[in-house]
């Protein structure tokens, strides 16, 4: 079996930046399995690089590009609209007024 590889690259120094997510076959399987498992009862997951203390972590700190920073920790959160409307209403505001 091939070692899973998921590379999260942050390109650019300003806001907004660009994020590239590169995966090999095994990394894609892990990512899809984790995404499919998200629900209201299991609303987030973490992925780490081995250098962050998780020996079998699938994240890679080796960037594809010369001008990219990589992430050693990826947290993905499932946020249904009703939760966000309650706790983060500003996400739904347009020109200073809520939808």
3D structure, described in words:
The mean pLDDT is 93. The longest helix is centred in the first third of the chain and has 13 residues. The protein is globular, with a radius of gyration of 16 Å. The chain has one domain. It starts with 5 loop residues before the first strand and ends with a strand. Strand 1 and strand 2 form a beta hairpin. It has 99 residues and is an alpha+beta fold.
Question: Any idea what the shape is?
Answer: globular
Order of helices and strands: EEHEEEHEE
Give the N-to-C terminal Cα separation: 49 Å
Q: Report Rg.
A: 16 Å
Beta-strand content: 25-35%
Count the helices. How many?
2
Number of strands: 7
The biggest beta sheet reads:
3 strands, antiparallel
- For the largest beta sheet, what order do the strands appear in spatially? 2-1-4
Estimated structural class = alpha+beta
* Number of self-contained structural domains: 1
Q: Low-confidence stretches at least 5 residues in length (pLDDT < 50)?
A: none
What is the mean predicted local confidence, pLDDT? 93
Share of helix, binned: 10-25%
Show the helix and strand layout:
Elements (H helix, E strand, L loop, with lengths): L5 E6 L6 E6 L1 H13 L6 E5 L19 E3 L2 E5 L3 H7 L5 E2 L2 E2 L1
Antiparallel strand pairs: 1-2, 1-4, 3-5, 6-7
Descriptive labels:
single chain, 99 residues, alpha+beta, three-stranded antiparallel β-sheet, two-stranded antiparallel sheet, 7 strands, globular
């Amino acid at each position: 079996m091939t070692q899973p590889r998921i590379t999260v690259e942050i390109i650019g120094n300003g806001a907004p930046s660009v994020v590239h997510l590169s995966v090999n076959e095994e990394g894609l399987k892990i990512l899809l399995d984790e995404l499919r498992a998200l629900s209201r009862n299991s609303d987030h997951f973490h992925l780490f690089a081995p250098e962050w203390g998780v020996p079998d972590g699938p994240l890679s700190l080796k960037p594809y590009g010369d001008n990219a920073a990589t992430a050693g920790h990826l947290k993905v959160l499932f946020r249904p609209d009703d939760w966000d409307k309650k706790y983060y209403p500003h996400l739904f505001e347009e020109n200073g007024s809520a939808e």
